[in-house]
């Protein structure tokens, strides 16, 4: 058996290549859109990719099933409850076995995160009593289970889906042998759950012992515990959940890798394009194009972009040196295909349009403390998730999670100084740029975020 996990840190996303070395047959599970790595690995190992399985309609990224099918002729598989699909699919049913040779896959229907969700048992040998592992998609994570409240599941309530998830996790998955390895579709940082581990695999036995949602409990207890405290949903999730059902265009960077002059970038901005600046927050604060959004490439770039940019918006990119293709690819992974060009050399480009270049304010913790004692103190805004805020916050601060900020801008006081903070100073730069673009003139973010605030309170 050939079994390979591919992990994208920026989306906390895991995909898998499973093949039989003797027969040369393989499938890919939950692929991303840039599929060259799967194809290269398959070719190197003498494998032919015959099928692509999505464990469910993903909401946090645009899957690469159409890209792989176009390159390989492979079939595309979903659980039998999959609805509204615009391209041909193979409907996978409970107990169905897919032979790759001696290596065999078996389908388990595990609804709950979404109605059509499936998990896939992987047997190294067709007659093995215990499976090598189970690909659980977003049904079971390491340390958590998939949230049942996403808009991907239109027509169902979170309570209904949580009830389905109870049966999937507590009965079907926990009914497997303790030695079966667990390989989920996501890890820590994903908004598809609230308590995901940094570990990328585990076993059923370990999850039985350590995963809060796998402990014996009633259905009512399970529903209550898995629906409580979920992070805010990024705005692009519903867009991707729908787009994954559509016969949409394939990933093609050739028309997006277009170098722009600074004047051309300004013209596109003036025509309605969103300028996404992927540089470090401090570089952005030193100088940036007026009205641009700072979404640092050294971070969860795609997810954060999807929180603050509309999926249908035209995008132009200001890239750190040599990283324009990377940024445009990462936007493509969430289905943001409306990139019309990039400015690669920001420093040189800014010199061409000095009247359009502005700085951004960042403050230290000590500067914030001083300003809070002034006659006209700033309004402080916390853009962290609710679970982070439970661990402490700056007294008197408003709570507007970054994923909710674009839809709640009318709650932000006008004509008053604003200071934004997150955990470490990256998301706050994103949020501050959103507020400036929305017309707030006096906006700063805290260097070092809440971590710096806590350290300042700790006696030496």
UniProtKB/TrEMBL annotation:
Kindly state which keywords UniProt assigns to this record, in alphabetical order: Hydrolase, Metal-binding, Transferase
| One Pfam family, short name | Rhodanese
This protein's record includes keyword Translocase: no
Q: Which residues form the Rhodanese domain?
A: 269-354, 374-458
GO MF, one term, reads:
metal ion binding
Q: What is this protein called?
A: Glyoxylase-like metal-dependent hydrolase (Beta-lactamase superfamily II)/rhodanese-related sulfurtransferase
Q: List the top taxonomic levels of the source.
A: Bacteria, Bacillati, Actinomycetota, Actinomycetes, Pseudonocardiales
So which domain of life are we looking at? Bacteria
Q: Name one GO biological process term.
A: hydrogen sulfide metabolic process
Mind telling me which PROSITE patterns this protein's record contains?
A: RHODANESE_3
